Amino acid sequence: MNEKKRVITLGQFIIERQADFPYAKGELSRLLRDIGIAAKIVNREVNKAGLVDIIGDMGGINVQGEKVKKLDVFANDQFISALRSGGECCGIASEENEEIILIEGGISQDAKYVIAIDPLDGSSNIDVNVSIGTIFSIYRRNSSTNDICNTNDFMQPGTLQVAAGYIIYGSSTMLVYTTGKGVNGFTLDPSIGEFCLSHPDMKIPASGKVYSINEGNYVHFPDGVKQYIKYCQVEDKDTNRPYTSRYIGSLVADFHRNMIKGGIYIYPSTAKSPNGKLRLLYECNPLAFITEQAGGKASNGKSRILQLQPDEIHQRSPLFIGSFEMVEKAEEFMLKYSQIEA
Ligand code: AHM
Ligand code: MG
To answer: Is 205 part of any domain?
Structure first.
């Protein structure tokens, strides 16, 4: 007889795991819960994206005569307001805002955490109904709770993240996060409006068959990357090559696929952007933390992403991330063919 599995919601799971943190008084749990709530609201709007012609163009006026916000602005507002009203976060660095957002006084007076977030990554994919995502990273502030939080609170290497995660708004919506004790994935059950544990203790396969990179930029790639791409395309039965090329152009979606099936995602430096395109604080670091917790590897082609010292909130970094053996191999090519400063 098929025994029915117990459904564990994100809220229950967070409470059950709270004891994992010796210093935790529930603040981090509440923070994760706040992010989960905002994610559900963003998900609802993302699902309605195709209806913009009926309810009003993004940036235009809807039938109620209200201005319709662009989805990335909407997502940013939702996460900021959830974190503001949750009372556990004193500052936010968002891809959407030039400067950090300060949350001062009131219930946030003693808040110990700062969040770096990309509220809606891959937003150029919204119009064509392709998966998009949210990526977040949580640090304990270094300044005192008596002071106003400042940019310095965010200038911490990724090794100091206390939690990180992403939400993928895909054929189903998932929230995946780590607090440094493995990675767990939750799928949103729309019938009950709850994220339910669906992927406990996620592990990324040590190797895979997929390489993901925007090959349109090929001529601008460093030689190490060009040589690695050739390696991926050459036939070799022992190592399962040639690999398959898959590039959605939505980091969370490309990353999530590789997490489940194995693979490597690369956004290298190019002649046009010597530091690559992706942002260290709210794209590379959180995914690197998750990757390492799942047994994978994340590098800038030479050094471990999590050890890079940021000096600017919107700093960029090249990214090589995914299955351990594949990233290791790509690094070998970088070492042999490209001299990169890192
Ligand atoms: P965004 O934060 O402006 O959406 O840019 C990040 C996105 C990633 O989701 C994706 O992997 C990458 O940019 C795609 O860039 P490109 O079109 O240059 O390949
Ligand atoms: Mg982004």
So the answer is: no
Atom of ligand 1 nearest to the CA of 248: 11
- State pTM to two decimals: 0.94
Q: Please check whether residue 338 is in contact with residue 274, taking contact to mean a CB–CB distance below 8 angstroms.
A: no
168 lies in some domain? yes
Residue 1 lies in a domain: no
Provide the greatest CA pair distance for the chain.
Answer: 63
The answer to whether residues 189 and 238 belong to one domain is: no
Hey, what amino acid is at 231?
Y
Mutate which of 251, 266, 281 for ligand 1 pocket (most atoms within 8 A of beta carbon)? 251
Give the CA distances from residue 255 to residues 159, 184, 199, 264, 306, in Å, rounded to whole numbers and listed in that order.
Answer: 20, 15, 15, 8, 17
pLDDT tens-digit series, residues 260-309: 999 999 999 998 889 999 999 999 999 999 999 999 999 999 999 999 99
Domain holding 226, by residue range, is 210-337
What would the two tokens of residue 331 be?
A: 């690094």
Does 257 contact ligand 1 (Cβ within 6 A)?
A: no
Structure-block tokens of residue 72: 């990335």
Nearest-10 crossing angle of helices 10-17, 27-47: 160
